[in-house]
Recover the amino acids of this structure.
């Protein structure tokens, strides 16, 4: 009988320990074993409630375009892939642009990345009526290719950085600028504007298709930074203009060129201080006092604490400021600027202490606050002028969520539209009759559904089957608040315990963070599989958002101003102290890691924040802000000559003599964003201080450390580093 009992107990233990399937690193980073909700690559068919998507047509073995009718729920063939052929060869489409009023389509093939968002590609013009396919610009690589509003012309920037227009009907190409070069950019922005203002397309067609407003960016006096491609017998050096803190920025001019005469009128941008000009858009003649088309230009001073909107008379080249937004710290640039038919406009501002929606008349005088309260609007999702309704995402229900709301222009009829609280990413149809909602939460995988504009659910488009996760026993993510020891501030945090958690045991912890100004890591949305893998392997995973991060209004966010590192290390240490207070945490086995700003955070925590973290992995970190670019850094730190102490206090270099524990520094040698020199200079500072850190570089990789096997190699390295040392 005794032997039988022992056998039963052993059998039960065997069942309990063998009940879960395990993830491998290959599962996490190469071939995930799960099918997650997706409707593929799609875009709206202009002026309709239909969207188009690519699908492999097995009969012709090519990608064809299919149309999905939202109202009917029907899918039909829109264009067969065999029509996308030139000289007998099928074109391998990666993208396309359809003009809303015509049957012309720009076909995009052979797309190549330039910087973070910009791409160059080869373009073809397809006429749906005739079925003819023609090359644009003889098949040369182009960027920022766009139809004119009347669809009679196509504008583009060539590889010499000049702006051209191709008149379709007469088959004639004209060059609008002549001075394009490595230093002079016409119609597109250089690296720093693209990276920090999200701007790369620097020209706009006028509504009547007669003019193009364009930016001429002169980078002549911007110092060049070399990046070395070492995967050649003789390394290749690639230079790009990169203005570091305190250095000379590119000089911008804005011209309005007459497409027929090719004559350019330059706008008067003279101001008593240095300014950035990151945005511009045209107003219809009906929206202006003059009854003529006008150009609206957004400008921001170098301190980035004052934003102004100007209307330009394109004939005279003179502009007039009609709206100003100011801040005690920095202004958040927004693309949410909507001009109505009467010339009034709706936009966002943080001047109340929280980002909200405001309605102004054409003179910039406030009509009313559309939203208000001690909560943030994240962004305007869509604007329906016909029904005088603004749709927006907000953190009203919770700082860690992003839900969809609607409100009338006058602030009435305020509604929460999201039927499940969590993280929603929404795209409205061109008619504003429907929206497609991508939803997830920390413990619920992606679901994609179609809704009517009033929030009524029409149908599921794609849902992740949650049963496929049941055999893995994934840990639940819990959201908590950590009270600081200095002034009892409550910091948002999230934690997940090991899969086979035993409260009588003590576990190691791996902390992930970013902690940059206005950022958020602690959010209620689906995370990646690597944390699940760590929980499976017996690690607690944890994140905390320090003071200076986003979602909680400007008073909280502006704590990062002029010393972005002040609260980063301090509050990550507060998180470590909280973890150490938990009976199931091994306080001597707390690790931390992050990427980019998170790499900076990690290095700061391993030095200034020592000895609270035993192991750290810092990937692509910007360790000394004097080495980083003007726009991002000066936005949060102010000008170098006016804040030398702040820059010193924020630098990891100031604390390298305090390094404790095991630190792995990782960087790509061709990182155009955070240059490789951040890592090499950090290691030099450790040498000076006689401190030892581990280091690995990825040859010829950029900020994301991708291509080849580098992604899997990197994550294997990070995983093993924690497992070997924590």
């Amino acid at each position: 009988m005794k032997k039988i009992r022992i056998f039963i107990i052993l059998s039960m233990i065997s069942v309990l320990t063998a009940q879960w399937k395990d993830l491998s690193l290959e599962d996490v980073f190469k071939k995930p074993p799960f099918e997650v909700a997706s409707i593929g690559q799609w875009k709206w068919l202009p002026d309709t409630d239909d969207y188009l998507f690519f699908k492999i047509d097995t009969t012709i073995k090519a990608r064809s375009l299919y149309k999905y009718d939202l109202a009917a729920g029907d899918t039909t063939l829109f264009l067969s892939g065999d029509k996308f052929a030139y000289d007998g060869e099928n074109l391998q489409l990666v993208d396309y642009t359809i003009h809303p009023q015509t049957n012309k389509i720009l076909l995009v093939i052979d797309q190549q990345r330039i910087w973070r968002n910009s791409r160059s590609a080869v373009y073809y013009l397809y006429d749906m009526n005739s079925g003819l396919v023609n090359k644009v610009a003889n098949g040369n690589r182009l960027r920022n290719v766009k139809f004119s509003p009347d669809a009679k012309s196509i504008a583009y920037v060539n590889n010499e950085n000049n702006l051209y227009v191709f008149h379709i009907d007469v088959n004639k190409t004209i060059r609008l600028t002549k001075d394009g070069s490595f230093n002079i950019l016409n119609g597109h922005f250089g690296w720093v504007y693209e990276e920090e203002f999200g701007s790369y397309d620097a020209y706009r067609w006028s509504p009547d298709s007669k003019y193009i407003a364009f930016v001429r960016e002169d980078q002549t006096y911007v110092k060049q930074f070399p990046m070395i491609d070492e995967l050649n017998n003789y390394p290749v050096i690639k230079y790009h203009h990169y203005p570091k803190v305190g250095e000379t920025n590119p000089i911008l001019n804005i011209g309005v060129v007459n497409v027929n005469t090719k004559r350019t009128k330059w706008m008067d941008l003279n101001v008593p201080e240095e300014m950035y000009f990151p945005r511009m858009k045209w107003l219809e003649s009906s929206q202006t006092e003059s009854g003529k088309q006008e150009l609206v230009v957004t400008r921001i001073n170098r301190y980035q604490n004052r934003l102004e909107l100007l209307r330009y008379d394109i004939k005279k080249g003179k502009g007039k400021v009609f709206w100003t937004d100011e801040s005690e710290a920095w202004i958040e640039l927004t693309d949410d600027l909507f001009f109505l038919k009467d010339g009034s406009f709706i936009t966002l501002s943080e001047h109340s202490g929280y980002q909200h929606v405001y309605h102004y008349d054409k003179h910039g005088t406030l009509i009313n606050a559309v939203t208000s309260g001690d909560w943030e609007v994240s962004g305007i999702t869509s604007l329906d002028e016909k029904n005088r309704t603004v749709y927006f995402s907000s953190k009203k229900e919770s700082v860690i969520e992003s839900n969809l709301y609607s409100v009338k222009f006058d602030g009435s009829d305020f509604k929460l539209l999201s039927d499940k609280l969590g993280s929603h990413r929404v795209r409205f149809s061109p008619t504003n009759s429907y929206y497609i909602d991508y939803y997830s939460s920390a413990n619920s995988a992606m679901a994609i559904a179609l809704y009517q504009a009033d929030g009524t659910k029409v149908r599921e488009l794609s849902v992740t089957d949650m049963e496929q996760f049941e055999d893995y026993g994934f840990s639940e993510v819990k959201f908590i608040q950590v009270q600081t020891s200095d002034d009892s501030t409550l910091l948002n945090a999230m934690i997940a315990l090991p899969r086979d958690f035993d409260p009588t045991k003590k576990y190691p912890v791996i902390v992930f963070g970013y902690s940059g100004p206005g950022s958020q890591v602690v959010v209620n949305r689906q995370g990646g599989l690597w944390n699940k893998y760590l929980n499976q392997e017996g690690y607690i995973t944890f994140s905390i958002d320090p003071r200076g991060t986003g979602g909680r209004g400007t008073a909280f966010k502006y704590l990062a101003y002029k010393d972005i590192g002040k609260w980063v290390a301090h509050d990550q240490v507060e998180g470590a102290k909280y973890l150490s207070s938990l009976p199931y945490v091994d306080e001597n086995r707390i690790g931390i890691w992050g990427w980019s700003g998170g790499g900076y955070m990690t290095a700061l925590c391993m030095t200034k924040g020592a000895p609270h973290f035993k192991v750290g992995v810092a990937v692509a970190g910007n360790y000394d802000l004097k080495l980083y670019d003007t726009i991002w850094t000066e936005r949060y730190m102010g000008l170098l000559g006016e804040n030398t102490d702040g820059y010193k206090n924020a630098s990891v270099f100031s604390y390298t003599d305090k390094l404790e524990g095991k630190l792995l520094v990782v960087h790509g040698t061709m990182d155009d964003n955070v240059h490789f020199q951040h890592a090499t200079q950090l290691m030099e500072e450790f040498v000076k201080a006689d401190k030892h850190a581990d280091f690995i570089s990825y040859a010829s990789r950029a900020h994301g450390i991708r291509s080849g096997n580098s992604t899997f190699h990197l994550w294997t390295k990070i995983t093993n580093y924690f497992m070997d040392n924590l």
